[in-house]
């Protein structure tokens, strides 16, 4: 039966393409006629009758598809009945599920009796499915976009691989047997890792599939006519699997297979066991292999074992630190690609050329390689997923991602159309006018010039974003004229000085010209570093990074306010990272970070020492917005929760390290804001205290979970079972309790619980409740003081607990109250003034506050209290004060210093608390002074002067910490403040004259 000439609508087909449609329809009509003849001879229904039943919309789609895609046309000419099957199965409108595909392929494979049959089934199955994928990609039914196309192709590859592998295993089992079980008794199969776009689940229409084969353990096969070593068995199986997919037969191929990403490439073994792969990547893995492994994903065989393998390789792919060395590698790879593109005249290639697909991928993968070890949200194989997560991590602005994502989609859509023309792997724009018109139609562009204009616009944006991430910082500096202003020094000048190419007199003159006051000393320091044993012993990659950094560093040093000081303080940092050269790369790749480093090191030797001791703090220089803006307590808690959420709960070492890095980083932010003058002194102490509180809350929760997992929950005093929230208090004394922490403050702590000390925990390994709480306290101290590569969290002082070092480490709330009522000394009540709950259960905190208010609010003999307080102050002064040089004033301990103000406040609370209960509310000196004023207990003017004095003293002490100086000042500078304090002391605490 002949189909009518007007069977296909032509309204939507451009005039230039209608002759091509007519030729395509002629071929299809002839094929249908032949199929009808065969059907008539065999008594079957002629296909053309069912074609006539196709609705108008399906006919419109058919006209579009066969006009654009020779692959689709050739397939329908060869198998006209497939269109009806795909239509009936809904495959022209949506992709079948993986389960459906697996079932379809499994049914067909049952008929395959030998490898030739396997090959035929796989190829016809693939061709039919690809017809549906190309159809959907070109007509875009609802819910179909570029990402749906890539997912469908990837799913087809996975199903084909698994189907072929399963058939081969069964087919060769009688001859080769099955692999021996693993040491844990589990079955052992081939592990197939998908790499590149296959691993990402984003294959293009005519993509190769990059694979790596592996197997878990060595051994020998069992149950076959021949026993093979696992290496030989899996190699043979892998070779058969490759042939099943890659070999070209009369039916074509399934997928081209590329195995060159395996260790040692084409010269290496086809298959490796887990231990050999781990050893290879640890000892010999190269940077480009890290890039390749970003997208590795188990796609067939033993998927669980594949996940285990990739878990073991994750430290190779994702560094714990920020790895800016990855940018160098990507830059080198892109340079190689650019040279190849230029050599072969491939500038129009939309994948490899400027502003092409690869540049978008490099942008995203640069962030994954640099930050994936820390920001585990980026440890994903999908480019799209990683790209869309970058704004939330502060790595790319949202507007950049809003451009890159649709631009990438456009480039991939164009790539798919180019490949749909003939099922050929290509990313080159066509020269043929007819093909150009087809491509323009497929992308719904008016014509070829309009498509080229859109493509140029897209590639320009992509190239701009690529350059912003990957470009060489030296090139940017030179282009912006920042390093070679008129009359200034260029990076080449600094490079010549660092490399020793100048005579000493010439070098010193250059340093003097750049603003160094002690040019000879500066040159000596630089020569000393360059000729040091550490530098001479560096490996080539590290040495190259140092050579690349030093001109930039010297340029930044010279631009600082105090070049001599900046150089003196930054060189120890450089020395400390000579063996961790990723930090050299970080500084080279981020000139702005160098500038911030100079400013902070010039202002504070303490910061310089912290940076040299903990180079991971260099990461903070990358985000000035947060560097000079400390987080409030809520944000601190959220950041710490996210940081720990990326670490397995059973990895205590990593958790401890994360806690310490968190603390150092946020203290640095406080110090940076302090130096920049963006935070008032009171806020500086507030933020340092917030950091300690958030860490203590986290440490308490960690310790509680640890003990509960081992021993179960303790009982409350009423006999009920404790809950998930720790039934425990951490009470802060001293500077922590008074919300006055400094940069190097210890933590004075007391631990309190309110459990039933006579009972046992309810776990499988029960212990006495008293032992449970003691171990909880010990665990907290361990988490705070354990030494890791990032140091300790805090030094802890527990001597203020009841009975001091002779007392129990943890006490009940009742016992604490009784001790304070009956045994505590006056100085212990003074200490209680500055005590407050910093972490723990709200109900217990309310109980502690009640005990504290009761003790501090007791009426006391004022004269006896005065004698005790003065006696304690004199005792302290004998031990700690009076040691200042002439003209110098010890801010803390000399008469009129901070400790005198603290004692004044403590005396006031203990003496007046019973009459002025509002004094019992606060633990910090500033608000105690404010309350003394508002309650009328002290004159307002005197309270204001005391507050001014306290702020001035503390501010100077804070600055002394940052500049690594003693907490002293000139007597003349503090005379008025000292006199204020001394006058108040004499009026309130000196005994009256008889």
TrEMBL record:
The record's SUPFAM superfamilies line, in alphabetical order, gives: Nucleotidyltransferase, Nucleotidyltransferase substrate binding subunit/domain
Q: Which GO terms describe its molecular function?
A: [glutamate-ammonia-ligase] adenylyltransferase activity; [glutamine synthetase]-adenylyl-L-tyrosine phosphorylase activity; ligase activity
Tell me the segments the record calls region Adenylyl removase. 1-474
**Record flagged with keyword ATP-binding:** yes
Which E.C. number(s) belong to this protein?
Answer: 2.7.7.89, 2.7.7.42
Which residue positions does the secretion signal occupy?
A: none
Family affiliation: Belongs to the GlnE family.
Matches recorded under PANTHER family: BIFUNCTIONAL GLUTAMINE SYNTHETASE ADENYLYLTRANSFERASE_ADENYLYL-REMOVING ENZYME, GLUTAMINE SYNTHETASE ADENYLYLTRANSFERASE
| Name of protein | Bifunctional glutamine synthetase adenylyltransferase/adenylyl-removing enzyme
> Whose protein is this, by species?
Billgrantia ethanolica
Encoded by which gene? Answer: glnE
